[in-house]
Write a structure and sequence with these properties.
The protein is mainly α. The chain is built from 14 helices and no strands.
Length: 332
């Protein structure tokens, strides 16, 4: 007797439940971990009750904002990576492949070099990311590009140009400023204490992406095939590029360049069975948020009271995971 086909509803429930469990576990681990020992019961109690104690201030003012910021940044990078892989039809697509992070990095480092106040750095990063995004798309959209090859090549060249400018700024930087610049370039969540805006941006980005999910399922087979089935490829291409770039800009503005999260987590979600983008997008977002939350927890505690750049840890984790994925899935 042939085996019954898998129930899509049960599969979706299982995968979303797994993503939620991973996210909740990562958030709880982050809130529990630090130089001050606070029990799990006290952490959960202090999330709802403000008793004015030292433990309450540690949770409300230090751990909770940073934990939520790390989750939002990781989720945004994973969501952007999923969209980029559809846009470019390339399993190696990630949020930084089109040079958005390079524009933000050059703007922030230039601001540091000029001695601008720290409050200026976030607007500068956002402006640099937007400038790079608009420049890449303007250059690539001047010609017909059904396979997005021109977009990919333009982004790669722009990223190389931004990298050269980053090297120039670092070579001109005074020795006292250089460590801070390098730390930010490697990914740093120590100043990300405004999670409200990050979570709002992530929620809006996920909602907009889910609205496009039926078209993304068709576009995964190629924009030409999707066009034959009624999808407007130019419009979808623009929507995907803007969404992915905006999510990347928000993440880079808050935490610097953090690699591998947006590359690895969409593949992990697919490996778990999330092929439909209506399921893949939220599952990848939850897994990305959980991954970066755990990486940031390790970054701030492994050599406490000093901190490690979280981008270094995500790379150390991401390289072996991606190599394992390559070995397991030869089609990648």
């Amino acid at each position: 007797m042939p085996a019954a086909p898998p129930d899509p509803g049960r599969t979706a429930t299982r995968l979303v439940g797994l993503g939620l469990a991973a996210a909740c576990t990562a958030l709880l681990v982050s809130l529990l971990t630090g130089s001050a020992s606070i029990s799990a019961w006290d952490v959960l109690r202090l999330l709802w009750i403000d008793d004015g104690t030292v433990d309450d201030r540690i949770i409300d003012q230090l751990r909770l904002p940073r934990t939520l910021s790390a989750f939002a940044v990781g989720g945004a990078l994973s969501l952007a990576g999923t969209l980029m892989q559809v846009l470019l039809r390339n399993p190696l697509g990630d949020p930084y492949v089109l040079g958005v992070s390079g524009g933000a990095s050059v703007a922030v480092l230039a601001g540091m070099l000029l001695g601008l106040p720290i409050l200026w750095l976030h607007p500068l990063a956002l402006a640099g990311a937007f400038a790079s995004m608009l420049l890449v798309f303007a250059l690539a959209s001047r010609h017909d590009d059904p396979d997005n090859r021109r977009l990919l090549l333009t982004g790669i060249v722009m990223a190389a140009g931004w990298s050269a400018l980053i090297g120039l700024v670092l070579s001109l930087a005074p020795p006292l400023q250089l460590p801070g610049m390098l730390f930010w370039l490697m990914g740093d969540l120590s100043a990300a204490y405004s999670p409200g805006l990050l979570l709002a941006a992530l929620g809006l980005g996920l909602a907009a992406s889910l609205a496009l999910a039926p078209q993304l399922n068709l576009a995964a087979f190629g924009l030409r095939q999707a066009a034959a089935l009624g999808v407007d490829p130019r419009r979808l291409r623009l929507q995907l590029y803007l969404l992915a770039s905006l999510l990347t800009a928000v993440a880079v503005t808050s935490a610097g360049a953090i690699g591998f999260v947006g590359l690895v987590t969409p593949h992990l979600a697919r490996l778990l069975g999330a092929s439909d983008h209506r399921l893949l997008l939220p599952v990848a977002t939850l897994l990305g948020g959980a991954l970066l939350t755990l990486a940031d927890t390790a970054a701030r505690t492994l050599i406490a009271p000093a901190q490690l750049p979280v981008g270094v840890l995500t790379a150390l984790l991401g390289v072996p995971v991606f190599l394992w994925l390559l070995r397991r899935e030869p089609r990648l």
